[in-house]
Specification:
By secondary structure, the protein is of the alpha+beta class. The chain has a single domain, classed as Gcn5-related N-acetyltransferase (GNAT) (Aminopeptidase). Helices cover 34% and strands 33% of the residues. The protein has a seven-stranded mixed beta sheet, sandwiched between helices.
Amino acid sequence: MENLTIRKATIADAEIVAILAQITFDETFGDHFRDRNDLINYFNTTFSAAKIRSGIAKENNVFWLAFVDEMPVGYAKLKKYSPISAVEDVNCAQLQKIYLRKDYLNQQIGTPLQQAMFDEVIDLGKKTLWLSVLKTNYRALRFYEKHGFITVGEHLFSVGKETFDFHILLKSFN
């Protein structure tokens, strides 16, 4: 896409990342919440501008923003060091978040956004990248499998009264 720009986020971008995080999380998971207050509380604790600002400032995190025609349409977050018991490599990284606004899912933005993260992982000398995906998010599962991820485990994640069942996926870099 010729009008696509992907760049690393800075602390000055915290508000943009925060609003994208709230919008895209709601578009992805909002229908799974019986109590909308649980979702709002999660936004306030996880996706506030202050929390995102703090996250961007941490040495262990790298955030990216994707823009189409200068409008923010997605973001990604890498944790440079994030061991998990399902992955043997204790020096692994985590693709913690990669979200696009719903209206942009078919615009071929996910692959270059993910590639920016892959390039960072390689530059860091990491051999393993893992992520988790909601088991019923078949679109995301197909996307990651297409890009070399394999399922290696599962875990549960709770928000308020809801518990979500996730696959753990792994990609190796040689």
